[in-house]
Amino acid sequence: MDELDVSCLKLASKGDLTSFEKYFNKNPDRLHTRNTKRQTVLHLAAEKGHEDILLFSLANGAEIDAEDNKGCTPLHVAIMNRFPTCVNILLKYGCNPHIYNLQELNAIQLACELDFDDVLLVLLKYKSIDVNAWNKDGNTPLHCTASKDSYKCAKILLENGSLLCQTCEIGFYPIHTAALSGSAKTLNVFFEFVSDQGKDLSRALSYVDKDNNVPLHSAVRSGSLEVVRVCLEAGSRIDLKQDDLYNPLHLASAQGNLDMVSLMSELQEESFMKALHQKDILEMTPLHRATLFNHGHIIEFLISKGADLEIGDIYQRTPLLLAASKGSHEAGNLLCRAGANPLAKDVNSRNVLHLAIKGGAVASKMVCSESYGNVHVTIKQLTNEKDAFGCTALHYASQEGRLAALNDLLRSGASINSKNNDRASPFHFAVRYGRYKSCCKLLDSIQGKNILNETDGKGMSAMHIAAENGHVKILDLLITRGAVVSKDNRNNSPLHHAAANGYTKSITLLLNVHCYLMNATNVDGETALHLSAKNGHTTAVCLLLSCKAKILKDRKKMTFYDHILEMKSFEVAQAVIEHQRWEEIMAQPSEIYGQTIVGLVRELPDVCLSLMDRCTTPSKEDPKYKKFSIEYNFKYLQSPEDDSGDFERKPMTILNEMVKYGRVDCLSHPLTINYLSMKWMAYGLPISLTSYFFYIIYMVSLSIFALTNKQIEKNSTSFSYETFHHNHQNYFLSTIIVAYSLINIVRAIVQLIQQRLNHLFEGSVVLELFLHVLTLIFICPFLIDTKFDSFQWEAGIFAIFIAWFNSLLYLQRFESTGIYVVMFLEILFTLLKVLVVFFSLFIAFGLAFYLSMSSQSEAYEQIFPSVLKSLMMMLELDYSTTFHTLFLNNTIDYKSVYVILILYVILMPFLLMNLLIGLAVGDIESIQKNAGLKRLTMQVTSHTAIERMLPKRLLRRFNKETYTVFPNDQGKCSSSIMKQSQPSNNDKFQNIEISADKIDWEMRKQNQRLKSIQSMMESQQEMIRMITQKMEICSEDDFVDEGENFTECMGNDLSNGENQVKRWKSFVEKKVKK
């Protein structure tokens, strides 16, 4: 924008039409020039009211609806500056009056908001402006005038057809908007318009919004006395209710607006008296509402007008009871002087004293002071009165810690022995809620000694309650005062309750004084250790174990660790494993699982890993040193012995549980690997080699026998059994084969009897049974002179095939070859699954080729060979022999065979073969990752089968409880499995040592920081106490007992329970001395 453009805009603002025309003639585009506020010449002319500039610019094509940086068009600017003529010009030239600026105001709304009646009259001359149209906020122009009290514009709108009965989008009529906004003049205009129209004004006054508020409700909410006056003078009734059943008097009373309430009484006396006794949704009268917010002047006025003092709300609370419950001192005094009944009770039979004490210290002072005048005689009567729960005022004073009320009640003769429906005394309440000062006052009273050992309905004394809630300070007070340790109705001692809730400081304090409670049992035979374990309190369990708690069984024959496993409490179980008594705990038999470690495998495998880590002990040497060793303790992996010293009949119980529940990490742990390695070297390898040796003899004998007799059959025209019997080699071989088969069949039957049908579902067992049955079918006819036919040879063919295939499965037991066998079998199973899924494709193509080529090719003359041929063609298509010659000679009957062949080539060799190759590669990768686990699983199964057959005495000789490995000395490693696992162990122990040092260092730093913060806070607290004493300040503590400064935390770190006991003992002694 150059200087000439700026000059042009200045001339438009000044209204110099002659000079403006000269600039325009030089460059007509200057009409579209904008200044820094994005204003055009039309904006500037409208702002100053220069009509000639406007007319000239509009006649020469100026943009009439251009917007500046505030979204205002020239029409907006003309309205804001109140130039009706300019507004008229712009509307004549067709400007859009419905454009909204950034304040979401259009032309008519802007005029109404500013109350420019002359501008509004100009706007309403044009039919394009709808006086009842909603704007973006959902309001009509009449709503806008009502909210801004633009009474002149409101009158014009009504005269031009604006509707009073039209709501905005949120359900308010203009009359409600005016009342709520305090627009008294506009509201008066509305009422005058209705009257002038000859309509019933009461109908307009009864309009309701979305909450069923009439205009008077809205007027009261606005707080404008003038608006309320207008509504009342127009005849609005005070007794009309909205959704919450509030009438206007309820609202005015709650606000505490005395002038408004007086005005209602003055102008609508009859309606006022009716509203005075009406109830809202909580069945409260206006007097209740005034009492609720302690508006004394409103209460006095309503009482003077005859408000009912004894009417109750939904909870049967009279205004006096409500004042007491809210701590409204002034309201209570006013109501009492007016004659309110101090003996009234609410729905729970609570009197004014109950509610006053619950309402606060000020309320209790109010009740017990002389301000009641005429009712001071009834105070003693109220003092020991019980509510529906059997509680007296002293119960609530003790519960809430109202010290001033407590003193007043004790002076008034309140009974400290009074019991509620649960037979709990005020002292029990004070103990339960941790009100230390209240407990001291009750114990220091005349009857204080009598309440020290009182019990409630559950047989719980104050010590039980304090221990249950972790109030250490109160527990210390009770012990100091000589409270007797008793048991409740379920024989629970205070220690049981403290342990059940995990309060370690309470446990420490009780054991420091009453150590005999450590192993006490309740009616369920549970000790404190049982309860802390059942409720998952780690620190409490560790503390009790550190204090030498006995590991006993409850009535269900369960130890505390059985409960931990039952609840699956990981943190507690982990902490017990890390405790110094872990070996003693793990040695305990479990009623549920037999062995504790079995429960860990089933329920908490991560904790089982921690147990196995503890059974792995590295030597103190550097992990890189040659003499560095790792000792493995197999005690918890072995089956336990019974009382006679014999092993249980289930061998490898723990490892089989790991296999059964899929505990991969446990099976691959170095302890498990070395345990299996020890067993493999002890008896697994010799037995496996021996078994494989005899199997090779059987397999070779069967093969030689079959080949020899097949050769005899081919070379001789007739086969006789005499020839067979005279052949000593055949006779010898058949004897070996039959003997081996019979032995294995008997062994399989015995295993089936021992393990029922579970053994039958093992693939290798079924295969061997089938093999030996086929072998006997093949061999027996030679021995018993039965006719030799083709069926026997077919059995022999399958027997020899299965025998050599089964020899491959034998190699799974050996580490160097087992991995390859596993990979082969996995891929084989995948292939079989795929072939079963896609078998329909083979049938489809086999039938198609049979129907189309049965007369041209011998391979497709029958259905089964056609299907078999389609399967073989995946490997070798044989196109030239089968199809090409026929294509060249044009001897194919059905041309559809071309389509079938193309589909076959696409689907079978390409798609299906690639799918099989991809699956095979994917399986190999997954098998390589899990090969170790599969090998371990097979080893477990193999060792289990072997141990079932071995004599117990021999098995006991093979088992070792400990096993030491030197990972850096290759000559001392007895197995390649161990050699492979040890390097990772070195790194593991090194990392554990480094991380443990870092954690220990960080914990020490944090401990030092916490100690410094604690000492600083104690010094500051002491300083504040001294300041308050010097200044004779009466603190809130003198009136309100806030309870203990802390409720004992259940998450304290107890690294050493015994030291913790000593530290706490010294702390208690210091407190007692103070």
From TrEMBL:
Keyword Transcription in record: no
Name of the protein this chain belongs to: Transient receptor potential cation channel subfamily A member 1-like isoform X2
InterPro entries (UniProt xref): Ankyrin_rpt, Ankyrin_rpt-contain_sf, Ion_trans_dom, TRP_cation_channel
Subcellular localization, as worded in the UniProt entry: Membrane
Membrane topology, as annotated: Multi-pass membrane protein
Organism, scientific name: Octopus sinensis (East Asian common octopus)
Per-repeat ranges for ANK: 37-69, 70-102, 137-162, 211-243, 282-314, 389-421, 458-490, 524-556
Keywords, alphabetical: ANK repeat, Glycoprotein, Ion channel, Ion transport, Membrane, Repeat, Sensory transduction, Transmembrane, Transmembrane helix, Transport
Gene: LOC115216486
SUPFAM superfamilies: Ankyrin repeat
A Pfam family assignment: Ank_4
Keyword Repeat: yes
